């Protein structure tokens, strides 16, 4: 029976692709600025999770009171919760030094606000409360991206040189 560690490494291989085996040097991972950045990232992701759960609860309350809740709202709330859970996984693996996870987390924290703001600008797609939630979500995601794109973090997770061995 495979261990949990083996399963996580297989998941990492699937999610990380060709760079799945590379970890940053331990001194970079344990650097105070790296740890501080992840502390903020996890707090902000926690806020995102609460925001997403709050949107689901609000939609459930509205539906329970007989208000029509559009399908787009249900899809958005479910997708955001799933996405936030995925970002927690990426954040956790990145904080352990996996470069692939850092790259995914950084990419998604930069792309999701754009997608969210574009969708919220489509007239009539979401009710006003959902548009407000999406704007707040985007602002928090931009904050996460800001921590991840700092000079220190980009240097700590820089692309390995061909001579750098994988650090598994």
What does this structure look like?
The chain has 168 residues and is mostly helical. The protein is 74% helix and 0% strand. It has seven helices and no strands. The protein is elongated, with a radius of gyration of 18 Å. The relative contact order is 0.17. The model has no long low-confidence stretch (mean pLDDT 90).
Describe the structure concisely.
The protein is mainly alpha-helical. The protein contains 7 helices and no strands.
List keywords for this structure.
single chain; 168 residues; mainly alpha; 74% helix; elongated
Order of helices and strands: HHHHHHH
Biggest sheet statistics: none
Q: Low-confidence segments, ≥5 residues, pLDDT <50? A: none
Which descriptor suits the 3D outline?
elongated
Structural class comes to: mainly alpha
Mean pLDDT: 90
Q: Helix tally? A: 7
Radius of gyration based on Cα positions? 18 Å
Total E-strand runs? 0
Query: In whole angstroms, how far apart are the ends?
Result: 21 Å
Report strand %: under 5%
Q: Percentage of helical residues? A: over 70%
Which helices and strands occur, and which strands form pairs?
Layout: H1 4-16, H2 26-29, H3 32-64, H4 71-95, H5 99-120, H6 128-148, H7 151-156
């Amino acid at each position: 029976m495979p261990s949990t560690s083996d399963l996580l490494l297989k998941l990492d291989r699937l999610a990380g692709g060709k760079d799945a085996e590379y970890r940053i040097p331990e001194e970079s991972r344990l650097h105070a600025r790296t740890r501080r950045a992840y502390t903020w990232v996890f707090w902000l992701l926690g806020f995102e999770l609460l925001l997403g759960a709050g949107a689901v609860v609000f939609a459930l309350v509205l539906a329970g009171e007989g208000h029509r809740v559009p399908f787009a709202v249900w899809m958005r709330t479910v997708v955001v919760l799933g996405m936030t859970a995925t970002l927690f996984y990426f954040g956790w693996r990145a904080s352990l030094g996996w470069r692939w996870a850092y790259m995914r987390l950084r990419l998604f924290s930069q792309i999701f606000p754009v997608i969210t703001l574009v969708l919220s600008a489509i007239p009539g797609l979401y009710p006003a409360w959902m548009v407000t939630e999406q704007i707040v979500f985007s602002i928090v995601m931009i904050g996460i991206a800001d921590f991840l794109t700092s000079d220190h973090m980009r240097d700590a997770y820089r692309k390995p040189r061909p001579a750098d061995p994988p650090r598994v």
